[in-house]
Write a structure and sequence with these properties.
Layout: H1 2-47, H2 64-67, H3 71-81, E1 85-91, E2 94-99, H4 102-109, H5 117-120, H6 124-127, H7 136-146, H8 152-155, H9 158-176, E3 182-184, H10 185-201, H11 212-232, H12 240-245, H13 247-277, H14 280-286, H15 291-297, H16 308-321, H17 324-338, H18 341-355, H19 370-382, E4 388-392, E5 397-398, E6 404-405, E7 410-414, H20 415-419, H21 460-477, E8 478-482, E9 490-492, E10 496-498, E11 503-508
Parallel strand pairs: 2-7
Antiparallel strand pairs: 1-2, 3-11, 4-7, 5-6, 8-11, 9-10
Pfam families: p450 (PF00067)
InterPro entries: Cyt_P450 (IPR001128), Cyt_P450_CS (IPR017972), Cyt_P450_E_grp-I (IPR002401), Cyt_P450_sf (IPR036396), Cytochrome_P450_Monoox (IPR050196)
Main location: endoplasmic reticulum
């Protein structure tokens, strides 16, 4: 009997011992992790000790700035109170230096620091590693490969395609105001810019503005923009495995699938078309090479073509950036003109002097709208389509005032705060197009709607052309006024949106 009892208690004792060892190991790992977090926080505190900022919680950081809907207003207060830059804590062990000074911007954008891995990596399941997310030599190779797609000679015939897409949108608005003179414009403008990029960069025939697939794609992009922005600020959603198990993670996955179905369809159609057309020289003799042609015919340094993965990454990147940022810009420009009728009328008169007889807009007309261009730039200052960009320092940096940051630190270049910085722009909330009058002086890095330096927006000339076409044709057809009951609330996502839409009163002009 005693032997059997001993034989039973030995396994129990060994299990108990294993549990004790496991508990001690778990505790040791927990203490080690706590020590690492503590030392990392001390390193961060030392790095930002010369940059004053508002008081923050040791654990929750500046989370209240994101929760009360006043994030942009808080950024403006930082820019007015704390010179050049100030640290903002996402939580106790994560901080980024918010930069809003042109001299600081110039130093950072003049370097080759990579995009911030901690936040930009969340875009990868959606747009892959194309021009937006690539760094180093790979980025340089892709940039050099794609630059010909945005040459002036390529852009000139695009103006006619932009004209067609804008007129389709304006016709829709004419029909809508027969029932209600107020229109929420952002979604319509998004469909129009998607239609434009499909025609210009991907030579797509037909209109996307009444296409259900396009509407699903637009909604997916909006969902992804919101989900990714929220994920960056949620400490519990940083790990990919954990995030995939959450409702938001599953939603993100479904939205990525919808976006990829759209771009895969575009690539498949073009590959089939090129099989019929033949080799590069035969295609070049028939028509100009668009963005997708250049990708499909491109060769890397070792002579191989782009992989399917790299190809889709570039298409996903440009499908998104080519329509969503421009849609934001156009929507906010029209809102700015709606709220400033005198400037709107002056722009209209300028456009009427060029196109009053109903002539289609051409490339040559775009340089003959100086006042309209000034108003567009001033609206882009007030409402920059990309509110901010991030960098991770790959070597120490010293700023012009002598303050410095170590290698590995995260910096966020707040274009919105820069454009609203009273130390850079007097009376920054006032809509004043004369700031951009020919010959007016300003810092080279005070106005950055398309970023700056080597990694500036490759499609900025394309975007400016489309904005001018959209504004000119809209002002010829409609008088714009704001909806006083629904004032837009700027909302910083990947692009600058309005939390409650952009509602305008449209009156058809005779």
């Amino acid at each position: 009997m005693s032997v059997s009892v001993l034989s039973l208690t030995r396994p129990l004792g060994s299990v108990s011992g294993l549990l004790q060892v496991a508990s001690l190991l778990g505790l040791a790992l927990l203490l080690l992790k706590a020590a690492q977090l503590y030392l990392h926080r001390q390193w961060l505190l030392k790095a930002v000790q010369h940059f004053p900022s508002p008081p923050s919680h040791w654990l929750f950081g500046d989370i209240q700035e994101f929760q009360d809907g006043q994030e942009l207003q808080k950024l403006q207060k930082r820019a007015a109170k704390y010179p050049c830059a100030s640290p903002r804590w996402l939580w106790g062990s994560k901080v980024t230096l918010i930069v809003y000074d042109p001299d600081y911007m110039k130093v950072i954008l003049g370097r080759s620091d990579p995009k911030s891995h901690g936040s930009y990596r969340f875009l990868a399941p959606w747009i892959g590693y194309g021009l937006l997310l690539l760094n180093g030599q790979m980025w340089f190779q892709h940039r050099r490969m794609l630059t010909p797609a945005f040459h002036y000679g390529i852009l000139k015939p695009y103006v006619g395609l932009m004209d067609d897409s804008v007129r389709v949108m304006l016709d829709k608005w004419e029909n809508l105001i027969r029932q209600n003179s107020y229109v929420e414009i952002f979604e319509h403008v998004s469909l129009m810019t998607l239609d434009t990029i499909m025609k210009c960069a991907f030579s797509y025939q037909g209109s996307h503005q009444a296409d259900r697939i396009s509407q699903s794609y637009i909604q997916a992009i909006q969902d992804l923009s919101n989900l990714i922005f929220s994920r960056v600020r949620n400490v519990f959603h940083q790990d990919d495995i954990i995030y995939r198990l959450t409702p938001e993670g599953r939603w993100n996955h479904r939205a990525c699938q919808i976006a990829h179905q759209h771009t895969d369809r575009v690539i498949k159609l073009r590959k089939a078309q090129l099989q019929e057309e033949g080799d590069l020289e035969k295609v070049r003799s028939k028509r100009h090479l668009d963005f997708l042609d250049i990708l499909l015919f491109a060769r890397t340094e070792d002579g191989s073509s782009l992989s399917d993965k790299d190809l889709r990454a570039e298409v996903d990147t440009f499908m998104f950036e080519g329509h969503d940022t421009t849609a934001s810009g156009i929507s906010w420009i029209l809102y700015a003109l709606a709220t400033h009728p005198k400037h709107q009328q002056r722009c209209r008169e300028e456009v009427q002097s060029l196109l009053g007889d109903g002539t289609s807009i051409t490339w040559d007309h775009l340089d003959q709208m100086p006042y309209t261009t000034m108003c567009i730039k001033e609206a882009l200052r007030l409402y920059p389509p990309i509110p901010g960009i991030g960098r991770e320092l790959n070597k120490p940096i010293t700023f012009p005032d002598g303050r410095s940051l170590p290698k590995g630190f995260q910096v966020s270049l707040s274009i919105y705060a820069l454009h609203h910085n009273p130390n850079v722009w007097p009376n920054p909330e006032e809509f004043d197009p004369s700031r951009f009058a020919p010959g007016s002086a300003r810092h080279s890095h005070a106005f950055l709607p398309f970023s700056g330096g080597a990694r500036n927006c490759i499609g900025k000339q394309f975007a400016m052309c489309e904005m001018k076409v959209a504004v000119a044709l809209t002002l010829l057809r409609f008088e714009l006024a704001p909806d006083p009951s629904r004032v837009p609330v700027p909302w910083p996502r990947i692009v600058l949106r309005s939390k409650n839409g952009i509602h305008l009163h449209l009156r058809k002009l005779p």
